[in-house]
UniProtKB/TrEMBL annotation:
Keywords assigned by UniProt, alphabetized: Methyltransferase, Transferase
A Pfam family it matches: PglZ
Domain of life: Bacteria
SUPFAM superfamilies hit by this protein: Alkaline phosphatase-like
GO biological processes: methylation
Name of the protein: Methylase of polypeptide chain release factors
A GO molecular function held by the record: methyltransferase activity
Amino acid sequence: MNSWRDTILNEFVPKISRLTIVSDPDALLTEEKLAVTLRERGFDLIEFNDAIEFRYAYESNYRIFWDQEKHTDLVVVLRLQDTEVDNLPFDLLKAGRRLSFDLGSIFPNLSYPVIEKLDRSLLDTLFDAQQNYSPGRIGDNATKDFILSHVFGIAAELIKSDADLLRILLRIHYNSLSIPGELIDRLVQVLSGHKAFAGWPLADVIPDENAFFAFLQERWPIFLSGLHATDQVGEVSEGYGLKHHGPDSLPFDHQDIRVYIDNLFVEGKLTPVAADTIGFDINTLQGDTWIKSGIADTGKNEGVRITRLLDLIVGEGPTEDSRYSDWTSLAFKWAELATLIHNDSTKEHRDCFLKLGDSLNKTFTDWLNNHYAGLINLPPTNPVMLHHVSRKMARELEDSQCAGVALVVLDGLALDQWIPLKHVIQEQAPDITFRETAVFAWVPTLTSVSRQTIFAGKEPLYFPNSINTTNNEQVLWRQFWENHGLSRLDISYKRGLGDGDPIVDLEPVFNPGRTKAIGLVVDKVDKIMHGMQLGAAGMHNQIRQWSKQGYLSALIKYLLEMDYHIWLTSDHGNIECNGKGRPSEGSIAETCGERARVYPTPELRSKVLSDHISAKEWRAPGLPADYYPLVAEGRDAFIKEGDSIVGHGGISIEEIIVPLVKIERRTR
């Protein structure tokens, strides 16, 4: 076999059976590339989680066609062991063939409890390693070492110096390697036995990206001071008030290390330090451009960062065959660049930014056509789409001893607008730390569609009656948590937040000590957007001014004081766009947005599309059967030609990839 997928794909020949029931406890069928291939072969995947919801989708989308003697290739996926499949409804068992797949049969010689924790995107590398090195049957620790070495390229026995360790840590955290906790613990255990690393905070900097970058940030000014110092570095470092223990001096100038350092400052993971605060003379640097990126030089850093970010994004831009994680990684770089562009940039930089954005969004649209459907059924262990978020929170509430969980939805907040908001919150509440990821919004990126998926914890297919309004969110939120064992008195919801005193706002709905799950909608950003006449730059400025009023930081601090685990996200982003003409369609559209319009029939949608060739018929699964969106691409909008707005509803990186942030107290 060339791939582990071959074992599975060999069983899926089109029209072999109109219904296939698969026991898939390890979520193999939802692996991104496999899901795409199955869809290309004509197979639709539906998870069997809730019997009532499944029956609705099954009867309305498949059974009705079977009764008409039409064929469909439906795959019912169960996260169950094979023996539990017998509990399915009898009509399904009678109509379908049964299959079963699991990691143990694909990797028979490796420890199952270890490999089941791996991100499914890493199975290709593990499968190749198993074939090339034939490890034989091995136990837990040997499996961990095998995976660390052959999947992540980390051979602990070869890490012997500070430079070796720092290089590995940079590889892990700069590339956001998805290393399971069990493997991290194993790496900490092995390295802790090395005398050379006795002073390193291994248990902090290996598993925790935030702690690692904070550790580097503290050591950077010491390194700069050491470049001119005549005394020992240990003496130079006195007075820096280091919070993270470990060696004072790090080999930033090692050839394997400095290649990362420039990018860390350019991408905003590290913050340049002011030269005058450490007595550093920047004029002494000649060819050391990697050092200059870490020194604040008023009026110059921003231009240099813009140029470097443009180069990085051009060089690392994802393709139509990339994984979703490549696009979320790109989105963070794009957000950093957008923040710089919208704050202060030259016309040349702005023109380059817009041209590159058009190119990226064209590729992104092509990627969505093939990959978006495969994201829907991915496990919520690491949320990828917005409807995964509440499922992740439910698992966290079940596993933790916290007072409860709080979901804060900042309606309309784009990823680039999160960056200045984050910085202001950190200034107002320095004891708060953020664990940042990004997720995909639902298309069309309308509030009534995408925001409801967050509170419902399921696809729009399952709330067709309220898909054009947000008035049912509280009901959906309560239904979700009641299905996870909470009582109605344990659940709270409130929207329309953003001004005044957040504690006063919460009083009517929040009972500390009793409320286990609280959902909050802060709609201030959305209000700013819909009244915006100064474009994306005006959006950034007004969001920054609003954040300085302290509403959001006060809300976060209060919830943390009450011992709640806080998740912050957005239902959709926004993009500055230009009018291409408003469709002349009378009242045939059910939703008439600036970037999305929805029609009751495909014929009506096609009629409008013929006059707006830059728009796109959106046909991804997960939407109600009678819901036909027409969405704008690129920076186009369904408004008067020549006008410009900041809007949402369409398909662009800025609208679809939104922040998902776990907010915690800083522990040191």
